[in-house]
Amino acid sequence: MDECLVSIKIEKLDEGGYLATSENLQGLIAQGRTIAETMEIAQDVARKLIESYIEHGDPLPIEITSVKEVIRN
Fold it and tell me: b/e map of 46-70 (b: 16 or more CB within 10 Å)?
């Protein structure tokens, strides 16, 4: 699978820790104790969601960009 760029928003939670979501990839929700841990979990969730899109033959959301496309431009 090609690498993809997905926009992720991270916010600090009042009760502690961080929450990552994405407006571009519905279903991406990840929570961790640190920003690094939250990003790592978010990357795993994004990978699994994208693999599911591909496995089911669904088109990826238009906002998700292949790294190959970015390098080409």
Answer: beebbeeeeeeeeebeeebbeeeee
